[in-house]
Structure formats: structure tokens, C-alpha cells
Amino acid sequence: MNDSLHLVCPHCHAVNRVPASRLPQGPNCGQCHQPLFNAHPVELSSADFAKHITRNDIPVVVDFWAPWCGPCRSLGPILEKLAAEFQGRIRVVKINSDENQALAGQFGVRGIPNVKAVVDGQVVNEFTGALPESAVREFIDSLLPSPAEPLRLEAQAARARGEGDATRKLLLQAIRLDPKHEQARLDLGDVLLDAGDFPEAQRLLD
Q1: 12 is catalytic
Q2: Which of 135, 140, 149, 155 fits a disulfide with 170 by CB distance 3.0 to 4.6 angstroms?
């Protein structure tokens, strides 16, 4: 994560630059002084939607919904709960597809609820229908950086300094922390190959 992030205020839609270390403290908007996160999804319209998906430096989860939609009402409380749980790491926004039909059409919404994950202004994943909480949680987890990534980056720096043992130790710690972190496994395999430890590299990569 960068030292600071751009975050769009859910109240006045001003773009704020916030140190990443302040996110757990619940920062306020520099313009309207309201909280940048209030543990709830943000209701948006076509007028302010583009700014939120292009200027936020955190993933934006967009829920296209309508008041008459039964599955939307089932999914709503799940997104509400996860918006609070993942506060500061993602932004959950809601778009009433009846009131914003052009926007829904622009994003290829053919059925609701349609939930799209947007990173750097681009849709990177989506689902349609009311999924169970476990599936929605997995969907959100996939958008977040691995907790092992700082260790992997530290290992890269150690390798650049020629510290082979430290590099291997850091990468092993990263893999223990997140066994699914594929890049950490590839990095360790590369280190093992450089060291001539071909059997261990083969075992790791198989």
C-alpha cells in the first residue's frame, strides 16, 4: 500500500489525500469534515459515480439494485455488514438501476442485483444474484492485497542487497502467512534455483 491514498468523500464527493496509517483512525473529509467512512454503503447517482470509481485508491464494490427486487433485498444486509467489516479497505456503493438506467446500461447490467468490483476505474470482477455471505466475503477478499505482500517486498529488497539467507527466510514467512500467495512461491523458487537447490525448487513449484 502507498504511504497515502486518495479517498472520495461519500458526503460532498471531495477527493482527499489521506496517509494510509490514518485509515484505522476513521479520518474525516478535509472539506466537509464528515467521516470518510461511516460503516454503510454509499448511495450514488450518475452525477457522482465516475469520481468514486476513478479517484478512490481502494477497491470500489458497486451494487446495482432496485427497491422492487427481492434478491436485492436479500443481498443488501450482507453488503451492509461487509461494508462495516472491511471499512477503510474497500468502498461499497449502491446504484439504483431504475433511477440510473443509462449508467446501468453503460456497465452492461442485465440482471440485478449485479455487483461489480472496480479497481483503478476498471471492472475486475463481478457477480449477479444474491450470493451467500461466505461467497460475497470471498469476492471482497480477492480484491485486497495479501497480508504476506509486505514480507515479499522486504524479501525483494534483501535479495537486491545479496542477503540470500534473509531472502529465503522472509519468503518462507510470507508463504506461511498466505499459502495461496503465488508470487511469493515463484520468488522463492527463483531464489532456490539461483542457489542450485533444484529438488527443493521443484517441490515448491509442483
Answers
A1: no
A2: 155
